[in-house]
Design goal:
7 helices; globular; five-stranded mixed sheet; alpha/beta; binds zinc ion; 12 strands; about 260 residues
Length: about 260
């Protein structure tokens, strides 16, 4: 079992963004706050993870792409042409065709940027994440909330597997249970984290549950929260997982790979 992080360049967030929409009275309050904020964080990674299991090579998320823009978040993306997902894979001597399956934590632009290189039949996302943007009226906002390539339709899964480690349901990604999807909704409607079970210790590839470990420890909301109640529930469950010794690897934490 091997996990390798690749980042498609970096992004810089408005510090106000990390205060979360609930503390600004909702998304519109946060948008106003962000617009007034002249600052930017240090450059942060956009991790996609190559997971080599005994039976297949899985890619979790696909990072951003050259040309990704921040929209209302005013996030600054620094992604050179040679920092695309395909170029980053090439640095690992991999081609898109060497990836058996792509699984997504969620559909935000900095996680779906490399999707165009893959056959949609090999791309999986939680049904709860895809459904709201698959049809009218959510489809109209897809350019902001789920900017997948035109005509792209991934395969969807339900959390129809057994309860696991404090989560009420799961979805076994691999038949041997070495990679398991856990529902962590809130940041987005069907946000998903991926538990990788290794002899040397379990790892949670946690997407945007929080942007870094201290925020999880403080149960802090960060960014736009699609469902506050579900998000609090996810924060609680993920923290207890982390406290039990599971390595917490969110997508924009520079120190995430050091926890592998
Ligand atoms: Zn996100």
């Amino acid at each position: 079992m091997k996990i390798v992080g690749i980042s498609t360049g970096t992004l810089q967030l408005k510090p106000t963004f990390l205060e979360g929409s609930p503390s600004h009275g909702g998304p519109f309050g946060l948008i106003r706050g962000i617009a007034r904020d002249p600052g930017f964080t240090e450059p942060l990674p956009m991790w996609a993870w190559v997971v080599e299991t005994a039976t297949e090579r899985i890619l979790v998320d696909t990072g951003g792409s050259p040309g990704t823009t921040g929209g209302v978040t005013r996030t600054r993306f620094n992604i050179a042409q040679n920092e695309s997902l395909v170029c980053e894979l090439a640095r690992l001597h991999l081609k898109p065709g060497d990836i058996d399956r792509v699984v997504l934590t969620h559909l935000h632009g900095d996680h779906v940027g490399g999707l165009a290189a893959f056959d949609p039949q090999r791309v999986w996302v939680a049904k709860a994440e895809w459904e709201p943007v698959a049809r009218f009226p959510g489809r109209l906002m897809r350019f902001m909330t789920a900017p997948v390539p035109r005509g792209f339709a991934p395969r969807v899964f339900d959390f129809d597997g057994p309860p696991l480690l404090g989560f009420t349901a799961s979805w076994p990604v691999t038949p041997d249970g070495s990679v398991v999807a856990l529902p962590t909704p809130g940041h987005s409607p069907g946000h998903t984290s991926y538990l990788v079970r290794r002899p040397e210790g379990d790892v949670l590839l946690a997407g945007d549950v929080t942007y870094e470990l201290p925020a999880l420890e403080c149960q802090r909301e960060q960014g736009f929260i699609a469902n506050v109640e579900k998000h609090h529930d996810s924060l609680r469950r993920v923290l207890s997982l982390a406290k039990s010794g599971v390595a917490y690897l969110p997508s924009h934490d520079p120190s995430a790979p050091a926890r592998l």
